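Methods — Computational structure assignment.
A single polypeptide chain was analysed. Its primary sequence is given first, followed by the predicted tertiary structure written as structure tokens.
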Amino acid sequence: MKLLGLALLLTAMTTACSSTDDAPSLNDAGSVPGAACQTNAECDDGQACNGSEACVSGYCTLPTNCQECAADNGGCPYTATCSVGNTGVVCTCKPGFEGADCIASWEHFDALTVPSLGSGIDYIGSLGNRIYFANAGASAVFLSYDVVTKQLTTETPNPDAFPGVDKPGESSFPIGLDGALYCLAADGFRYDISTKVWSKTAMDPLGNVHDRPGAALLNGKIYEVGSTNYTDVVQAYDPASDTWSAPGSIASAPWNVGFAVAAASGGKLYVIGSDKASTYGKWVFAVYDTSTNAWTTKPDLVAPEHLVFEPYGAVSVNDKIYVDFGYSILAYDPAADAWGEPIVAPKTTVQHSHAMVTANGDLFVLRGEGTGVDVFRYDL
């Protein structure tokens, strides 16, 4: 297709107008919405262009030029805009992406050597400047990493707080608040970061209704929603009083949601997950307002399969919600009520084990398994 487009363009250059200046992007007949179509020759509105060309806005153009970009974005990465210039298809990186492949602006922040994580990172959270991460199961390794000093510290592991993945009673990702980390499910655990001691918190009165729930800190409370078993039940834990909300006091989610992730911004809880009717690559999305105790459903999030695996986590940074989908990260702007362009996740030899977190006002992704962990920072 690219060679055909180039041949047509060369024909236009020799049979139409003498100028070889590129025109501004046009959307001519044969284009698809958003596909940029550029031409190579100037003309007057009263001047007929040769062959199958048409004079549009002062330029000779071929419908096939638009078609070059209509198929698979002209071979350009999805993070680039396709256009047709004098030399054929031109790929122009969209804002926030750079390089020949238009990759997101990730900085390889650090490379860590750690005790064996086995198959990789299963739990991650943060508090202040530190990122806390662990694997799962009886041989749990629990570490913290200071993003300011780049210091790695061994923490006290707790297999009960970090149970084996896909086993009953799996807790939420650690939530940091007031010098402690909280891992909540049927059984709750609190980790004091100064003494490195674990203690148990009050049990969820509903028992094991939440298994690997989405969790987020909102107005001093930790909200849990969703379960691998699918549920519409929403609970809130108050660390200050070590108590749970009364069952049924928080409005139920709009659907029974599973594999949920959650983040809070502006007094609202943003939840993305799967309902049992969802197809792969399609995720339900809703917002809970604590002031009204009510949910607002948003349009389902639909993304190309090669960009999305499943939601692994969500964080709030600079008034935006970032959702980690494995292959890419999607950012939602609540003020604009819009999703941005997918951010390609940083690439290493380890693609399946990774975790996203925010620390010190920055967005980080950790990738690794065994004894090696790469730390990446995204340029917000």
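Note: The chain is about 5% helix and 40% strand.
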